[in-house]
Amino acid sequence: MAKVKPVTGGRPGSGKSSGSKKGLWRSLKRRLLQLLLVILLAPPVLTVIYSVVPPVSTLMIGRYVQFLWVDRQWVPLDEISPNLIRSVITSEDSGFCKNHGVEWDALQDQVEALSEGEKPRGASTITMQTAKNLFLWGDRSYIRKGLELPLALMLDAILSKKRVLEIYLNIAEWGEGIFGAEAAAQAWFGKPAKDLTRTEAARLATALPNPLGRNPAKPSGGHRRLAATNLARVTGAGPIFGCVLGK
């Protein structure tokens, strides 16, 4: 008579099932770690590439994906009017040549304003805006603002001030589908960016905070006043443009 072997384990196949689950979990963790590594390495690797290759912004990529019209004509910084360079630095980041991508004092002021229940007013530098345009999304959020800080510090460490400004002026939005100084100058004034007058440059610079709502060619009364204020500030700005225009 055959002997019946005692059952010593659990359900048939339970060991195999448990092993496959563990293997699946290990594979998933490995994939997640690989994805995290790619996310961490992508910005510095792309920044090194962008030091010699003209980049596109995430907003431009979004329009390309949706098959929407994009007008961007890359030009080197020396083919952009010094008038526009002065107006943009004065309007967007007067400490551009001195800071390391982040204005910590201005940022602290905004944090304090927020803690007191006041509405924060930006505190973004040109380098932070460049980081946002290259790597992040457009909607305002504290998560995005927090990501801007290390990205801006990285851009400032890898790129020269001239290259940061050159990238910014070539990917900034100046109207629906209009990106960069050359496309903006052609669209709004019918001339190359290198030929922009002081008044035209001031109107373009003060359109940047609201590029879809401000028309540099036909500015509203409020826009005209902003441009006039910008012109006055540029005149009295002093030596704040030396890192890009020399003394």
UniProtKB/TrEMBL annotation:
<keyword id="KW-1133">Transmembrane helix</keyword>
<keyword id="KW-0997">Cell inner membrane</keyword>
<keyword id="KW-0472">Membrane</keyword>
<dbReference type="InterPro" id="IPR036950">
    <property type="entry name" value="PBP_transglycosylase"/>
</dbReference>
<feature type="domain" description="Glycosyl transferase family 51">
    <location>
        <begin position="69"/>
        <end position="221"/>
    </location>
</feature>
<keyword id="KW-0328">Glycosyltransferase</keyword>
<keyword id="KW-0808">Transferase</keyword>
<dbReference type="GO" id="GO:0016757">
    <property type="term" value="F:glycosyltransferase activity"/>
</dbReference>
<keyword id="KW-0573">Peptidoglycan synthesis</keyword>
<dbReference type="InterPro" id="IPR011812">
    <property type="entry name" value="Pep_trsgly"/>
</dbReference>
<keyword id="KW-0961">Cell wall biogenesis/degradation</keyword>
<dbReference type="InterPro" id="IPR023346">
    <property type="entry name" value="Lysozyme-like_dom_sf"/>
</dbReference>
<feature type="region of interest" description="Disordered">
    <location>
        <begin position="1"/>
        <end position="22"/>
    </location>
</feature>
<dbReference type="Pfam" id="PF00912">
    <property type="entry name" value="Transgly"/>
</dbReference>
<comment type="function">
    <text>Peptidoglycan polymerase that catalyzes glycan chain elongation from lipid-linked precursors.</text>
</comment>
<keyword id="KW-0133">Cell shape</keyword>
<dbReference type="InterPro" id="IPR001264">
    <property type="entry name" value="Glyco_trans_51"/>
</dbReference>
<keyword id="KW-0812">Transmembrane</keyword>
<protein>
    <recommendedName>
        <fullName>Biosynthetic peptidoglycan transglycosylase</fullName>
        <ecNumber>2.4.99.28</ecNumber>
    </recommendedName>
</protein>
<comment type="similarity">
    <text>Belongs to the glycosyltransferase 51 family.</text>
</comment>
<keyword id="KW-1003">Cell membrane</keyword>
<comment type="pathway">
    <text>Cell wall biogenesis; peptidoglycan biosynthesis.</text>
</comment>
